[in-house]
């Protein structure tokens, strides 16, 4: 088993156990956890995520457009290009996401991941993740 595959397996096990994982992708460093409506999170993690939420808005991370349209009531195809370019967009009408990550109108920041690790993880986990930025890394 490759190091990458082992990392994915370890991360999947943590997410399924209600834990969060640290990630570093592109220009941000953060923590991600299960975003689904039926997610069971460890109490200590829940407190940590609530504290992070007071400092900034969460972003819902999806592997690809196909997965995103399963969780949104009305998807505007004109957003595809922006999302594929790595932009975070505020979207309304999200379904199947835990209420605590959503604002008015069932809205949240949404992103299609650009990172191979997160893409593989979300595809294998078969659910979106909620992410919180902890630090912005300088562009190289």
Write down the CATH topology. DHBP synthase
Q: Label the CATH architecture.
A: Alpha-Beta Complex
Query: How many domain units?
Result: 1
Overall CATH class: Alpha Beta
The averaged pLDDT comes out at 90
Q: Output the radius of gyration.
A: 14 Å
Structural class: alpha+beta
Number of helices: 5
Q: End-to-end distance, in Å?
A: 32 Å
Describe this structure in words.
The chain is of the alpha+beta class. It has a single domain (3-136), classed as DHBP synthase, CATH 3.90.870. The protein is 34% helix and 23% strand. The chain contains five helices and six strands. It has helices at residues 3-16, 43-55, 65-69, 80-84, 116-125, and strands at 21-25, 28-34, 59-62, 89-91, 108-112, 129-136. Strands 1-2-6-3-5-4 form a six-stranded mixed β-sheet, with helices on both faces. Helix 1 crosses helix 5 (116-125). The longest helix has 14 residues, at 3-16. It is globular, with a radius of gyration of 14 Å. It starts with a helix and ends with a strand. 26% of the residues are buried.
Layout of strands and helices, then pairs:
Elements: H1 3-16, E1 21-25, E2 28-34, H2 43-55, E3 59-62, H3 65-69, H4 80-84, E4 89-91, E5 108-112, H5 116-125, E6 129-136
Parallel strand pairs: 3-5
Antiparallel strand pairs: 1-2, 2-6, 3-6, 4-5
Helix pairs in contact: 1-5
Summary of the model, kept short:
With 140 residues, this protein is α+β, with helices and mostly antiparallel strands.
């Amino acid at each position: 088993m490759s190091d990458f595959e082992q990392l994915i397996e370890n991360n999947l096990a943590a997410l399924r156990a209600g834990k969060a994982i640290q990630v570093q992708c592109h220009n941000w460093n953060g923590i991600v956890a299960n975003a689904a409506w039926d997610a069971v999170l460890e109490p200590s993690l829940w407190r940590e995520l609530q504290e992070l939420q007071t400092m900034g808005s969460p972003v819902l991370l999806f592997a690809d457009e196909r997965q995103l349209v399963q969780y949104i009531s009305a998807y505007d195809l004109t957003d595809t290009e922006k999302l594929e370019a790595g932009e975070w967009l505020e979207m309304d009408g999200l379904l199947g996401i835990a209420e605590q990550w959503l604002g008015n109108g069932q809205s949240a920041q949404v992103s299609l991941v650009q990172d191979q690790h997160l893409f593989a993880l979300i595809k294998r986990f078969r659910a979106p993740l909620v992410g919180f930025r902890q630090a912005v890394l300088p562009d190289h």
